Structure formats: C-alpha cells, structure tokens
Amino acid sequence: MTARSLSGPMFDMHDPTRTHDPEDPRGRGFRRRFSVEFVRSAIDGNVFRIGSEQVRLGESHGRVLDETVIAKASVPHFARAAMDGFALIAKDTDGAGVSAPVRLHLIGQSRPGRPFPGQVLHGQAVGIATGAPMPVGADAVVPVEQAGIEGDALEVRTCVAPGRHVGAVAEDVAAGDEVLRPGRCLRPQDLGILSALGVDCVTVVRQPRVAILVTGDELLNAGSSPSEFAIPDMNSPMLSALIRRDGGTPAVFGPLADDVARLSREIRDRVDDPTIDAIFVNGGSSTGPEDHAPALIRELGTLLAHGVALRPAGPTGFGVITGKPVLLLPGNPVSCLCAYDLFGGVIVRKLGGRSAKMPYPVVRRRLAAPIVSASGRVDYVRVRLSIDDEAEPIATSGASILSTTTMACGFVIVPAEADRVETGTTVEVHLYDAH
Amino acid sequence: MTARSLSGPMFDMHDPTRTHDPEDPRGRGFRRRFSVEFVRSAIDGNVFRIGSEQVRLGESHGRVLDETVIAKASVPHFARAAMDGFALIAKDTDGAGVSAPVRLHLIGQSRPGRPFPGQVLHGQAVGIATGAPMPVGADAVVPVEQAGIEGDALEVRTCVAPGRHVGAVAEDVAAGDEVLRPGRCLRPQDLGILSALGVDCVTVVRQPRVAILVTGDELLNAGSSPSEFAIPDMNSPMLSALIRRDGGTPAVFGPLADDVARLSREIRDRVDDPTIDAIFVNGGSSTGPEDHAPALIRELGTLLAHGVALRPAGPTGFGVITGKPVLLLPGNPVSCLCAYDLFGGVIVRKLGGRSAKMPYPVVRRRLAAPIVSASGRVDYVRVRLSIDDEAEPIATSGASILSTTTMACGFVIVPAEADRVETGTTVEVHLYDAH
C-alpha cells in the first residue's frame, strides 16, 4: 500500500461516480470510492423480485400479494337488513308519521343465518335483525325505534322509501371486481375481505432467504460469554432482526475463521443452494490481509463495487455470483448497521417485492450542533433529540461504538454534496423506533 | 324500546361524559352514549401490564424489555486497534514525518483473536489489523498508509499521540453501566449490544394472549365458501392480524351461535383460563334481542361502558370480569376495525407494556371535501389521497363496507367537539400502511 495524496477528494475523470477519498481515515487502502448512488443503481440493476408461494389466509398479514384477487361472488351475496327493525313493503308506509301511524301484520322473524321462510305481502311485516336476510317481497326496513308492537300488530310511525336500511347485494364487493392487486402488502382488513370472498389460500411473494456469513477469527457465537481475546458475534443477531423486519428469513452461517478456503467453500455452497436468495458476508470486507471476501467475489463472480464514499461503512462491497446478489458488510457493528440500512435492506425488500424505501419514520428537526462531513462522502450520523426537540449529533468517530445506535433516536443522512451542515439547519431524522 | 326525541344530543346532567344521541341511526336502543374519552379512561384504569418471561436473544427483537441490563464486563474488554496498521510506542514517532521517517523494527503480528504474544519495547512495532488486541507495551497505531515496510524494517512517516487509533477498553460500554432499561422495545442493534455483553436470554414482557370470541348464527369459518344465507367470519382474521401487529397473541374461539348459555360458558372458560389476558367478544354487542354479550358481562362482572358516541362503532362495550378486561366489538367489520383502532389496540398494547398510542404513521393533509359529523360524537372517517395529495373522505354510510378500508389510505378522527369539518381544513390522516 502506498501513501496517498493529502489533497481533497478528486473525481475520477472516467467515472464521476467514483471518487478518491484520501482523507477518510477508514480508507485503509481503497484507491477509489464508489458513490452511494452507484452502489444503489448496481443493486437496482441486479436484484429482482423472487418467486411466490401459497400461504393460508391467517398467515398472510404483512405479506406481499402476488396475484390479482377477483371476487368470485358478491359481498354480500344476499340483501340484508342494515338495522334492527321491521322488513316491509315501502309503499305500505306511504303517508305514515308519528301522528298518523300505519298498522301492519307481523308475520315472523328474520335473524342472521335464520331467514324468514315465507314471503311478505302488502300489509305484512317481518321483524328483522341487522345483517339478517331480507324476506322475499320486502324492500325496506323501518328501524325498531320508529315502530311499536302490540301482539302481532305493528304500528309504523315513519314513511320509508324502497331500499331504506337495506344492505344491497354487492354493496361491498361485486362479483368480478378486482379486489386486490399484486404488490399489495396485505393489511389486517384485507384478510377480512379475502375471508368474505371465501379465499382460504393466498399467493404471496416468498420471504427472501438471506445467508449471513459471519467471519472473524476473534468471534464467538452470539450471546456467548466474552473470553480473553475473543468477542461474541454482535452482528448476526442484529442482521437477523433487520432481515426479518424487512420481510426476509435470515440463515446464519458462522462465525467462520478468516480462512480463504473455508470462506470460498461457504460462499460457493450458498450460491449453489437454491433456497438462498442473497448472501451477506459480514467482516473481512476491507483491503487488509485478512479481508478475503472481495477477492473471492471477484474470483467467483463479479464485484461491482468495493469501497464506498460512505462513513462509517466505507469497506462495503456489492457483487453478483451466477445471478445471486452478494453484499459485503463491514465487521464493525455501526458500519454493519449503516451498510444494512443503505444497501442490505434495499436488497431484502427488493427481493421480497417491497418498496426499496427505508422503513424508518422520518421527522424534520433543527440541528442542535454542526455536522462535519466531507464533500463527496455520505455520512450516517446518529442523533438524539434534545430537550428542545432538536437533533443532537452523537459525537463519536468510532464505527465500533454500537451503543451510539442504542442511545440515538435515529440518524441523519448527510448527502455527498455537503461538507458541513450548520447548527439550526432543518434535517430529516430517520427514527429507529417505528412508534 | 321506545321512540326517542328527535332533538339534538343532550348531555346527561349526572354524568357529562354520557350523551343521549337520538339522531345516530346506529343508535339501536342505546339510551345514553359514553364518550370515547370515558371508555379510554375506563381502559386506563382497568388494564395493566402483564408479567414477563425469558426469551432467547435471537427471539427478542421487538419485544418489550422487562429488566435493567447492567454490563457485567466492558465492551471492548481489551484495547484493540481501530485501524489496520502498526502498533508501537507513540513516543517513538516524535518528530516523524514524510520527509523525516522514523525506522522501527517489525517484530510480529497481532490479528483479531490471535494476539501478538510478546511485548513491544522502544524501537519496535507489531503489524496489527483492525479489532486485533493491542500488544503489551504499545500505546498507539500508525495506519498502514502512513508507513512502509522493507523486510522487518518499518518506516513510519507520521507522528502519533498515545491512544491514537486505539479502541480503549470500555469505549463502547463500561462494566457496571446500565445499558438498557425496562420498557424498551428492543431494536436490532440492541440485540448486538446484548450479544456483546454475553447475554443469551432476555427478560421481556409476555405477549398478551387475547381470546377472540366470534358470535353470529350466520357465520362460517373464516375463508370458507359463502353459502345460501351464511357468510364467512371476516373479523377474526382481521382482529388476529391486528393483535399480532400490536405484540399480542390471538386465540380464536368460534364462530359461536347466538346462544346465551353457550356464550356465557365460553366467556367464563376464558375468564378462568390463566393463559388468557383479555377477552374480545365480536358481534352481539348492541341492544337487539340476539345481543347477549352486554348482559352477560353485567352478570359475570362489571360493564363499565356500553354504547359509545363513536361512528361507526357505537355498539361497543367495555367491562371487567374478575380483573380481566372484556371488550365488546360490533360485528359489522368497519365498526369492528374502528373499535379495535380506538380501544382494542390500546388494551393489547397496555397489557404488553407498550405505548397506548395508535401505531399508524400520521401525515397532515388538506381535506378535499367536507366531513359531516355530529357534535358530541367522534367519527372515524376513511379517506384516500387525491391526485393533489388531499384527503378525500370515502363517502359511504355503511359500517359493513369493509372494502372502504382497503381502498382507503387511512382515516381521519373527527373529534367530539366538531360537527362539520370544512373543505381545505388541514387534518391528520392516520395511514393504514406503515410505509
């Protein structure tokens, strides 16, 4: 590795999306940096929605629909009372009022699921409950409050028009209607509609299965007690939760030793496994002597970008092996989170047919202190909200300080164009907590 | 049932939270209405956080922490390199620069998990990778870019201060630190921190188990094909999904026939079942002859409110049986969703130790058309966003038209004070989709 110039970032004349970024101390030998946009467009061009599967209705909430749901029958499929009252022929109430009630003959009851078996003729009425089928012959309902009963005599004190308080056939959904379209993330109420249509199974996009290959000689299994110079794997529990949040299914392999032959075999096995939709390699993603992953991707497939003008996730890479997306995420936990938020989540959501947009709620807040960035580099800055509800950058340079992301309420993305964001500027804070 | 006055809503002199609401055609015999606030405060006073359980770290994402996590050890628990480079004694670099390099003797390597076994003395340096333990004696790291190697000779071209590029012991978390507090909804990165601390099991609030008792003679199992006058249960799949979204576990019982003895037994069984934390009775919640639930709650426990000044969920009730909360939700599906959004979700989230706040993102939009409400009544109005990004009320009176909630992007809550909201007013739209 050679000493690098200490001048400011220089744009590569041949590819303006690549910049030299010699001032970033996380540089560690990257001779050029890819822009965040370049990596995003590489993901866009190489990550595609996966196939679909059938799930039971009760399991479909939050899944992405992959069929057009056409109503086979109408909802409701019979006319029904919209109120508790009396089903009758509207014409029989002509001129009725409080001072001039009309008297009808009460001939029976209609209850939900237990319709009145006969027919309503002029001068007749049937007691009816909300949701019960309208008896044959009746065309309106008088609410219970506007009538009185004496034995089998009904006194109606209001005049109703045909159709009054009747839920018509198909008023909710008509047979043949397109009810839900592919790409829809199913809501709780969608399950209600699907159930009403008699849909028991739904075709949804599969949940992308993402292999997480965690590398590092120093790593113990997640949740183990730390020992002398070994530390528990922090990133696979975090990445697994993030992948699940974004609709994927994580599959953790490792921790793996920093051994090039072993890592190569693990990557090839995941590439060959048809149940794996993407491979995330965590750790060994930089340019040091133990950073085997980038060369392996180059050897086994195509490394489309390696080294990103992004702090604190410079040592990020993205490539493809026989069509399968491979993301290299830095081992430092904050860098790992940053690389997931900017790239990993996009891959998982795109595979699963979801919006590429980050799932964090965004609020706009004034900045309580300046953020120093560098032109040409995107910064992922953890902030907390001050007592005055301003965004306070959490001052730390350490990519390994994961507690900054537990103390922070969220983060601000400083765009590549900015080299400094002044106090008082209104910034968008991406909130870690959904609510 | 007697005819009711047709004058405007009147406040009950003895309880201003109750109003007579004779003009609401959904009244169906409610002689008085409880305000939404009254029901909310009844929930507040009668629903409490349930107990806790231990879960594995990997299952803890999104769960509510119920312990104070104190760091048993520091993170990191050894000093480590923050960059790839050379560990040395800072004092040895005094005066070093590009034009005046200092020469040191390279005596070995320190790798993550494989520390250098010896000690660094003056004039010596050890190659070191990011995250590797600092060798005994060394107090700074010179980045690889600012040095050159020839055999075992190292040329250092910069001067560093003690501690430079060293991750100090406890820089992330110090032993004894309070890392996470009870009530925290665990983030992906929290799992990372917990893993680093060697935490394998976490104490979290149990997921409240909510019994859903679906009643109605006309109901078939969810997802069945509709038959002559029978309809599939739409509400239990919807309620189950809503309860899961809010961190609970649904348990569906039914559909049950409108049979008072059967319903009474089912309710008592759920009250006696210690694994059930709350009971939601769906359907039969109004004042008609088949509406058995309110009287049963009154008989078995206390019915704190029945009949709410809320459209379209007037026939809602809330009570307690031997300390267990019981919510009566209307059978009409939009009413059911409305009653869940305003009350059911609050119960589930409070039981589970979560914020009572509705989990829907809120955006502010101009109203594209007026909303007619009634003073004293809260309205839950489904809206869609117009091409101009204005909130357009979806015009329908039907509480049974569930498709309005699938077409809508969200809803507007019209407060009790308002009787009309004019076009152009800025309203808060609660979005059904989280993103």
Note down, in words, how this protein is organized:
- The structure is a homodimer of 435-residue chains.
- Chain A is of the alpha+beta class and 435 residues long.
- Chain A has 4 domains: 10-47 and 208-351, MoaB/Mog-like domain (Molybdenum Cofactor Biosythetic Enzyme, Chain A); 52-71 and 175-205, Molybdopterin biosynthesis moea protein, domain 2; 80-167, Molybdopterin biosynthesis moeA protein, domain 3; 362-431, Beta Barrel (Beta-clip), CATH 2.40.340.
- Helix content of chain A is 17%, strand content 30%.
- Chain A contains 7 helices and 31 strands.
- Chain A has helices at residues 36-46, 188-196, 235-245, 260-272, 293-300, 333-351, 403-407, and strands spanning 10-11, 18-20, 33-34, 52-56, 69-70, 80-81, 85-88, 102-110, 124-128, 140-143, 147-150, 153-156, 166-167, 178-180, 201-205, 209-215, 219-220, 231-232, 249-256, 278-282, 302-306, 310-311, 317-321, 324-329, 362-366, 371-372, 378-385, 391-393, 410-414, 420-421, 426-431.
- Chain A has a 6-stranded mixed beta sheet, with no helix packed on it.
- In chain A, a hairpin with a 5-residue loop joins strand 27 (378-385) and strand 28 (391-393).
- In chain A, helix 1 (36-46) runs parallel beside helix 6 and helix 3 runs parallel beside helix 6 (333-351).
- The longest helix of chain A is centred in the last third of the chain and has 19 residues, at 333-351.
- Chain A is elongated, with a radius of gyration of 32 Å.
- The two termini of chain A are 47 Å apart.
- Residues 1-28 of chain A have low confidence and may be disordered.
- Chains A and B meet through helix 2, strand 18, helix 3 and helix 7 of A and helix 2, strand 18, helix 3 and helix 7 of B.
